[in-house]
Write a structure and sequence with these properties.
Distance between the termini: 72 Å
Number of domains: 1
Shape: elongated
Strand content: over 45%
Oligomer: single chain
Largest sheet: 6 strands, parallel, barrel
Order of helices and strands: EEEEEEEEEEEEEEEEEEEEEEEEE
C-alpha cells in the first residue's frame, strides 16, 4: 500500500495534520496554527516549511529533507524519536528537546539558543550553530565537522565523540563525563570545569583558566595558545606541543610542554610533588 501524498499545500490551523501516519509531504507550508504534525508516525517531508510553533511533538520515525524552520517555528521538535534531518535551515530557537535518535546532516541552526537539550543517541555531520546553551544534558553523541558560536555549550553531556570542530564557546564542556574531542579548535574562557574523563587529541585551545577542576584530563599533541592559569585543581596527563603562558596548582599527574611562562604551585593548596612537569626547551 503506497503512502498518502500531500503536494504544495498551504496548511493552517491548530493540529492541521494531527496523528498522521505513513505520509509523504512535498513542497508544503505549515503556517499559523500550533502542533500541525503532533503525534504523527512515519512521515517524510521534502522541501517543506514550518512557520509556526511546535510542528513535530510526540512523533516517531520522521525524515525531513531540504526543509526550513522559520523563526516562529520555535520549540519545533520535542519528545520525538527517530528523526533524520538533512539539508535544513533552522531559524527557530529551542529546537530538539528530549528526543531519542536524532540524525542531523548539513544543518544550519541560525539561532541555536537552548537547542538540543536532554536528547540521546545523536549523530551530527556538517552542522553549524549559533547560540548559547547548545546540547545541554545530552548523551551518546557522535559529531563530525561542526562549527559553533555560542557560550555554555555541551553542559552536562555524557559519552560524546567530536571530530573536526571549531568552537567559539565560553564555559564549554562543563560537568561532562566521557567526552573525547579530536582535531578541533576551541576558544573560550573556563573550558571544561567540573568535567570527568575529558580527552583532547590534536586540538588547539585558547582559554583563560581553562581545564580546571577536572577529574582525569588527558591532552595529547595539543597546542595551548594565549592560555593562562591552566589546570587548577585538575588531575592531568597533558602532552602540549607549544608554550603555555601559565599553569596553576594542578592536583596530580604529568604535564609536558615546550615551555611554561609562569608556574604557580602553592604548597598550602596542593601537593606539588604529585605532579611531574617537564619543559622540552
Amino acid at each position: 500500500m503506497s503512502n498518502k501524498q500531500i503536494r504544495q499545500e498551504f496548511l493552517t490551523g491548530e493540529r492541521a495534520l494531527f496523528g498522521s501516519q505513513d505520509m509523504d509531504i512535498y513542497d508544503s507550508i505549515f503556517d499559523q496554527g500550533e502542533s500541525p504534525l503532533k503525534e504523527s508516525r512515519d512521515i517524510r517531508l521534502y522541501n517543506s516549511m514550518f512557520k509556526w510553533k511546535y510542528p513535530l511533538w510526540y512523533c516517531r520515525n520522521i525524515q525531513a529533507e531540504d526543509c526550513t524552520w522559520f523563526d516562529m517555528a520555535r520549540a519545533g521538535v520535542w519528545y520525538t524519536d527517530n528523526i533524520e534531518v538533512d539539508r535544513a535551515l533552522i531559524e527557530a530557537p529551542k529546537n530538539f528537546r528530549r528526543c531519542d535518535g536524532v540524525k542531523l546532516k548539513h544543518v544550519n541552526f541560525v539561532n541555536a539558543e537552548e537547542t538540543l537539550w536532554n536528547c540521546k543517541n545523536i549523530e551530527m555531520t556538517d552542522v553549524q550553530a549559533r547560540g548559547d546553551y547548545f546540547a545541554m544534558n545530552c548523551e551518546n553523541i557522535e559529531i563530525q565537522n561542526f562549527e559553533l558560536v555560542g557560550n555554555y555549550s555541551f553542559d552536562g553531556v555524557k559519552h560524546m565523540t567530536m571530530k573536526n570542530a571549531k568552537l567559539l564557546s565560553k564555559d564549554a564542556f562543563w560537568n561532562t563525563d566521557q567526552v573525547t574531542v579530536y582535531d578541533s579548535f576551541i576558544s573560550g574562557e573556563y573550558l571544561g570545569w567540573n568535567a570527568k574523563n575529558l580527552t583532547l587529541i590534536n586540538c588547539t585551545v585558547e582559554s583563560l583558566q581553562g581545564m580546571c577542576y577536572i577529574d582525569n584530563l588527558v591532552m595529547k599533541n595539543c597546542k595551548l595558545i594565549n592560555t593562562t592559569l591552566a589546570f587548577e585543581y585538575s588531575t592531568v596527563e597533558a602532552d602540549i606541543c607549544s608554550h603555555i603562558d601559565s599553569v596553576i596548582n594542578p592536583t596530580s599527574g604529568t604535564i609536558t610542554a615546550d615551555s611554561i611562562g609562569e608556574l604557580i604551585l602553592e604548597k598550602d593548596r596542593i601537593k606539588p610533588e604529585l605532579t611531574r612537569i617537564t619543559c622540552r626547551n
